[in-house]
Specification:
The chain is mainly α. Helix content is about 50%, strand content about 10%. α1 packs across α4. The protein is globular. About 15% of the residues are buried.
Amino acid sequence: MTTIATSFELPELQRLMVTLLAKELRLDAKAIDVNRPFTQYGLDSIAAVTVVGDLEDALSLELPSTLLWDCPTVNAMAVHLRAMLGNRELALV
C-alpha cells in the first residue's frame, strides 16, 4: 500500500471528498461537481455516515456524523475541513 503525504489544501481535500463520494455512490468522480449539493446525488443518511467514517479514517480526525448535512457540498466540506485541520499533513492511502 502506498501512502502519499500532502498538505491540507482545498484541492486535495476536494479530491479526497470526490473520491469518497464517487466510491460510495458508485459514480465516476468526473460526474461530481464540487458545488452541487450532496442530496442531488441521492446521498442518504446511511451513505453520509459511511462517507464521514471514511473521512475520519483518511484524516485521523473525529467528525460529527451530521457533517455532510452541515456542509452540503464538496466545496463547503473542504473549506470546513481546511479550517479544522490547520497545517497538519494529510496522508492519503
